């Protein structure tokens, strides 16, 4: 019998994923000073043991002030590497490929881990480990009236952050990660430069499309220069801001699908292998048409319009049949699953059973099959 699309391997550069199921990067808010912990080992490890092809670790701050919360993962110093190396080695021992997402939160930094919001509010002040004075962005425009006011990055700070991305990429390689993903979505720093909602600059980093994408393109170039040529580079993009009308105080409406696809074309030429198609995060005025697979059309459009670039689909893909159909209909090359895997860590193995595909059951668990 033919191998179902979800269980067909995917080779990108020198890395082969055994199936098309990726654990979507998800903040675990379980770090101190950016260090991964035993929680991460067990969390990531459970998916490696249970058949997920690619486990992608959560947004890791390339600088302390680039973390979303004081409890976010980081990769800004060499000391962070050792624990990550252990996690990667464990994943590899179970035939899972391992990835990590590099991020800078920009104006959305210094916030509170979800379960602490009720305790001390949505913003983390200095008393709660935050860094309000260090919050930065392309322009001094806060995300909302309730958010920290960012200071505007100057040219030297822009270059420093690009170096921080490259240094973090080098550390990710040292930890043994197979795949690197840059977080260019959800209203974090890379996306803040892309979107006219958060970028009102008048220098070469703002205004025209070519100027707004400059920070992302230069960052990708800096990372690709140090990330080994045999290892895949992914970028997660918000394919739209879902904001039709100009936001109050913003110079124009949101980042659009047309622009995102044009950027993807540029990124493909810069050595990006896959664009992971997400959306939203620039403005509280966003209006998201949530529905099963609601972001899949972005991946499908990307595949149709940018030949040679792989497309990742993510967002409310919750079942084996749904994920397999997305791939079988050639609407994406890889399916990222988030909350469905949080609910059911055995999803990948159950999917194989449901689709009639072979998947190596962990021999320790064979009697549970
Ligand atoms: C997320 N998401 C997310 N996305 C990202 O690019 N980097 C991240 O670190 C996080 N963190 C995160 C934490 C938690 C707890 C959740 C639930 C989500 C978004 C996630 O990767 C995914 O894109 C969305 O959850 C939509 O996919 P699902 O969950 O519908 O499969």
From TrEMBL:
GO terms for molecular function: FMN binding; NADP binding; NADPH dehydrogenase activity. Its cofactor is FMN. It holds the Pfam family Oxidored_FMN. The keyword DNA-binding does not apply. InterPro entries: Aldolase_TIM, OxRdtase_FMN_N, YqjM-like. Keywords: Flavoprotein, FMN, NADP, Oxidoreductase. CDD domains: OYE_YqiM_FMN (cd02932). Residues 6-354 form the NADH:flavin oxidoreductase/NADH oxidase N-terminal domain. It comes from the Eukaryota. This is NADH:flavin oxidoreductase/NADH oxidase N-terminal domain-containing protein.
